[in-house]
């Protein structure tokens, strides 16, 4: 399949994990906006949040989305907040096939609870935060999605298989 494939969805949906594996299967290059920001700045996402606040991170994220969506024939994993800004949504929609990886809040919480690398979840009620983000963002992910893939209870191998079937149709 020609063209870019772009993953969107909440933290813990599997964008980075599934995106990397799909790229390998399809023999495409893989990029992840968070990883690329970290590689270029030499610091972590939590550090950027600490020093520049969420607003500073969002600026870097928008620039990275602009740049990486200019590439051709790649798999791109975005961060969960990439869809917050309308301009990013337009860029993402126009850049290829967009897959919204979906999971319920309980699963997202299970998958992220031991990870210290998501500043928005470093508080005393990460589950409530995920709930709030789900309400706010689910419509935005839907707005940009070509396909919605439910990852609920599915191992990564099944999700990959399902995506490959969808995009080959
Ligand atoms: N379908 C799945 N089932 C179980 N665990 C998963 C699944 N998809 C991802 N994970 C795990 O959840 C965690 C978050 O995945 P990640 O790819 O970083 O998500 P995202 O980039 O969407 O935030 C990782 O530990 C990953 O191994
Ligand atoms: O949802 C968000 O606002 C964020 C998601 C993270 O990426 P993942 O969705 O890959 O965890 C990362 O970009 C940052 O911590 C902010
Ligand atoms: Mg990720």
UniProtKB/TrEMBL annotation:
Mg(2+) binds at residue 16. The keyword Signal does not apply. Its EC number is 2.7.1.71. The keyword Signal does not apply. ATP binds at residues 12-17, 118, 154. Belongs to the shikimate kinase family. It is an enzyme of class 2 (transferase). Monomer. Catalyzes the specific phosphorylation of the 3-hydroxyl group of shikimic acid using ATP as a cosubstrate. It comes from Methyloradius palustris. Pfam families: SKI. Substrate binds at residues 34, 58, 80, 137. Binds 1 Mg(2+) ion per subunit. GO terms for biological process: amino acid biosynthetic process; aromatic amino acid family biosynthetic process; chorismate biosynthetic process. It is found in: Cytoplasm. It comes from the Bacteria. Keywords: Amino-acid biosynthesis, Aromatic amino acid biosynthesis, ATP-binding, Cytoplasm, Kinase, Magnesium, Metal-binding, Nucleotide-binding, Transferase. The gene is aroK. One of its GO terms (cellular component) is cytosol. Pathway: Metabolic intermediate biosynthesis; chorismate biosynthesis; chorismate from D-erythrose 4-phosphate and phosphoenolpyruvate: step 5/7. GO terms for molecular function: ATP binding; magnesium ion binding; shikimate kinase activity. Its cofactor is Mg(2+). This is Shikimate kinase. It catalyses: shikimate + ATP = 3-phosphoshikimate + ADP + H(+). Gene3D superfamilies: P-loop containing nucleotide triphosphate hydrolases.
